[in-house]
Amino acid sequence: MKFLHVSDLHLGKRLYGCSLAEDQDSILQQILTLAARPDVDAILIAGDVYHRAQPQPDAIAQFSRFLTRLARLKKPAFITRGNHDGEAQLAYASPLLADSGIHISGIFDGAIPRIPLRDAHGPLYVHLMPFFKPYQARRCFPDDPIETYADAVAAVLRRAEIDPAARNVLVTHHFIAGAQISDSEERSIGGLDQIPADAFKDFDYVALGHLHKSQTLGHGRLRYCGAPLVYSFDECGRTCSATLVTIGEKGAENAFELVPFQPLHPCRRLEGTLAELCAQPRCEDYVQIRLTDPVRPLDPVGSLKLTYPNLLSLSSAANDPIEKNGEEAPALDPALTPLEHFLAFYTSQNSHPPAEAQTDVIREIIREGDADA
Question: 48-62, 174-188, 307-321: lowest mean pLDDT where?
Fold first, then answer.
């Protein structure tokens, strides 16, 4: 049986204030195209459908359109809650959606639903375990000693209905110990949310969401498919992909196919002088630019946006702090003129004196100030 595994859509997310709705529409269409492949039997979405627990109306409408088109494929889909999703918001109308083959984890009550499938190798069960916190598990199992996320997950899985003779797939959204994190993810203090991989030893495949970097753990049984888009400039250059996993007979090794997503606007980091960057061909990627001009140019954003209309972040080497190894600023010398004080301060801060044009501007300001006095 072949599953399409995706996660971390983060619908409604903005990058440096820029809406990603158009980019995410493109990704959702690519997911639907993959899901429509004749060899794909079912779809797994492992959490963080939305970026906020209270999603914006546009994000809700976007996901609604996606679900409608997904249901038309007449293939089962399994969606679980992530830490960014609100329980009630994601679970809304889930019993009705299940009639259309769209299975969504409901509000957490300590139990994880099990949905049966069947192929030539016999029965296969898909289990939906949403993201939850230890206090939620303690509320369901007051007699269990639950302190950590690992304790909470263990308490839930002890009560899960797992058929050891059949194949079992778990769709969940948690942090597995030993996995690599990315810069766009939330981090916990001291790794308190980490769960050991052997907690999932009874499952033939664990479709994971939460971490944005694609990676496999547990000898191919546990996999993060990764986020479908880059959500931080620190992750520039990373290839985002969907995972197609084929689960054969019980005990057989899982087979994987990674299908890269094609972003509308790749994220890029650029560096150079204003003249060098403006001389490049027009680029509609999302860009973060650092100017290397020794003096910050006048209105660099206006100039750069002619070439880079999706400029999202700009910094300048002229404004970079200078390391002084603990040196204090030069003390005021009453024998110095105001202009000489400025020249000394500027040189101390920038490790070089100002340009003659800058000195002329300051000289004129001081002259006008003296005239007003």
Answer: 174-188
Neighbours of 237 (CB within 10 A): 9
pLDDT > 50? residue 326: no
What stretches of 57-123 show up as alpha helix (H) in DSSP?
57-71, 87-91, 94-98
Q: From CA 126, how far away is CA 170, in angstroms rounded?
A: 6
Classified as helix, coil or strand, 317 is: helix
Calpha distance 276→291 (Å, rounded): 10
- Model confidence pLDDT, tens digit, residues 279-288: 999 999 999 9
Single out the residue of 61, 110, 57, 51 nearest to residue 86, CA to CA. Answer: 51
CA gap 226, 241 in Å, rounded: 7
- Residues 6 or more apart whose Cβ sits within 8 Å of residue 306: 278
Q: Which residues of 301-326 are buried (b: 16+ CB within 10 A; e: fewer)?
A: eeebeebbebbbeeebeeeeeeeeee
Q: Is this structure's pTM higher than 0.85?
A: no
Q: Dump the DSSP string for 245-264.
A: EE--STTPPPEEEEEE---S
pLDDT tens figures, 174-203 = 999 988 876 655 655 445 689 999 999 999
Residues 6+ positions from 69 with CB-CB distance below 8 Å = 32
User: In whole angstroms, what is the distance from residue 351 CA to residue 117 CA?
Assistant: 69
Task: Return the exposure string of 13-45: e unless at least 16 CB atoms fall within 10 Å of the residue's CB, then b.
Answer: bebeeeebbebbebbbebbbebbeeeebbbbbb
pLDDT at 190: 47
pLDDT class of 291 with cuts at 50, 70, 90:
very high
Q: Give the span between the Cα atoms of 346 and 340, in whole angstroms.
A: 10
**Mean pLDDT (whole number) for 361-367:** 87
Asked whether 78 and 43 are in contact (CB, 8 A), the reply is yes
- Alpha carbons 104 and 107: distance in angstroms, whole number: 10
Strand 167-173 relative to strand 175-176: parallel, antiparallel, unpaired? unpaired
pLDDT grade for 370, boundaries at 50, 70 and 90: confident
Phi, psi of 29 (to 5 degrees): -65, -40
